[in-house]
Amino acid sequence: SESIDKNSRLESDKKSLEIELRAVQETFKAAQNETNRLLAMKERLSKTEAEDRMKIRDQEMEISRLKNKIAEIENQQQDLDGQKNKLENDLLNLQERKKSNISEAEKLNSMCSYMEEHNKELESKLNGLETQVSMANRTLE
Q1: Is the dihedral of CA 36, 38, 43, 47 positive or negative?
Q2: pLDDT (tens digit, 9 = 90+) per residue, 29-57?
Q3: Would you state the torsion angle of the CA atoms of residues 36, 40, 46, 52, taken in this order, to the nearest 10 degrees?
């Protein structure tokens, strides 16, 4: 009877151990599945991170290219501003020269009018003298 009790206890312990073993195996299997799932997520994240790093590098290169383009455009703008200032100065100089030329032309027109009047007076004197010379010549004949 003692042996039967012992066997019965051993059988009971064996069943308890088998149940515990199955529970530990299921827990281990679940933990392995979770570990595999987490490893797959980590791999996807690593791949996404690598893709993101490449995208960031591409965007940084594009930003650098755009900054260079902006600097180029700013330089062109400065050149154009310089050309504009030069043309504005040239225009002011030409406007001043035009005013000076108009003033000079007005002076010359005034002088021409004066000379025309003077020439008419001289022509009139010349005609008078020619008439006198002609009369003197006739008198001498």
Answers
A1: positive
A2: 999 999 999 999 999 999 999 999 999 99
A3: -160
Confidence at residue 114, expressed as pLDDT on a 0 to 100 scale: 97
- Three-class HEC string of the chain: CHHHHHHHHHHHHHHHHHHHHHHHHHHHHHHHHHHHHHHHHHHHHHHHHHHHHHHHHHHHHHHHHHHHHHHHHHHHHHHHHHHHHHHHHHHHHHHHHHHHHHHHHHHHHHHHHHHHHHHHHHHHHHHHHHHHHHHHHHHHC
Q: If we measure between CA atoms, which residue out of 104, 7, 41 comes closest to residue 33? A: 41
Instruction: Summarize pLDDT for 54-89 with one digit per residue, the tens.
Output: 999 999 999 999 999 999 999 999 999 999 999 999
Extract the tokens encoding 48.
């996404």
